[in-house]
Amino acid sequence: MTTLRELSPFVEPAYGHRALSDVVPAVGQALGSDALQAPTGLVLPPAPAYIVFLIDGLGSRLLERYTATAPYLSSLHAISEPGTAGVPSTTATSLTSLGTGLPPGTHGLVGFTSRIPGTDRLLNALFWDKSVDPLEWQPHQTAFGRLTDAGVRVDVVNKREFDRSGLTIAAQRGAGYIGADRIGERIAGAVAGSMHRPSLTYIYDGDLDWTGHRYGVDSPQWLQQLAAIDAEAVQLRDALPDEVRLVVVADHGMVDSTAPASRVDIDQHPELRDGLVLLGGEARFRHLYCAPGAESSVAGAWSERLGPRAEVLRREEAVARGWFGAVTEAVLPRLGDVVVAARDDLALFSSRDFGYEMSLVGLHGSLTPDEMLIPILVG
């Protein structure tokens, strides 16, 4: 079994080997298509049709911790090897990596919020900005689209409200869209999609992630939701023809941050604002956009304040480490001049800019094993 390299105590993304961006290329190969370059560390069994079921927020470590709550998914996890999310380990970045087959540095959705180059505004990648054309922000053909062009039927099964959203266009264009707001509709949509040969049908469920953000991953609410997700996966598998393969993945894990000492409001520390033009990212992974020439002083101030609780890197250092994969010139200015990745349960809030984040318990975005390791389960 391959051991993923750890960057004490971080997990580096396994782009091209066994990352979330490698799942659709591996499915394409299993369907008999050569439209996408297959990864080196993920081989899936041949089948005429595949269902990819993404459970938002179900990290591999969480599944290990709560085996009894999710017996079906845990039985698959026991015979599988985890993969990794990309960096940052956050939903918009991960969903785009899945749909495009590209690392964040290439597809350009580099966080929950990131700078719109040439402005002092942030793009919120989940809610989007009508002034930003998703076709320009993410100009590459998606993996879904390339498979479609190669003769594979590709469908997305998701809530109706997400159809034609900026994120959906950026990440999943080229696929058909089946609106499904409830479990029964999702399962029916998946079964309908699987009747086409060859086919890939992608299903998304975001309820576990929402529950984790609101109540935390150690909460009774989260455990009840996990049990419901496990039951949904069983129903889905039972409803599919035997020859259809089910792959269950996640976009990231989650870390609870509840201790007051771990919840830092940067607006209570004026030195952390010195030299900053714009604060982006999210509480576990911050993009710091600096005034010209202020990068070193900003990095120094944040390093001094946070010490070993976070990794503070200049943009070029993070790129050199391969955190974002291959980074294009168009994407480079979307990355912070300085990036800050939290360790343990540290959360970096801003009561001024992102007050709503301070109500959250479960968080993600950084490179800890709890956030980065994701299940890749074949049923």
Could you please describe the fold and organization of this structure?
- The chain has 379 residues and is of the alpha/beta class.
- The chain folds into two domains: 6-256 and 368-378, Alkaline Phosphatase, subunit A (3-Layer(aba) Sandwich); 260-362, Gyrase A, domain 2.
- Helices cover 31% and strands 21% of the residues.
- The strands form seven sheets. The chain has a six-stranded mixed beta sheet with strand order 8-7-9-3-10-20, with helices on both faces. A four-stranded antiparallel beta sheet has the order 13-14-16-15.
- Helix 4 packs parallel to helix 8 (166-172), helix 9 (183-194) packs parallel to helix 11 (220-239) and helix 10 runs antiparallel to helix 11 (220-239).
- The radius of gyration is 20 Å and the shape is globular.
- It starts with 5 loop residues before the first strand and ends with a strand.
- 54% of the residues are buried.
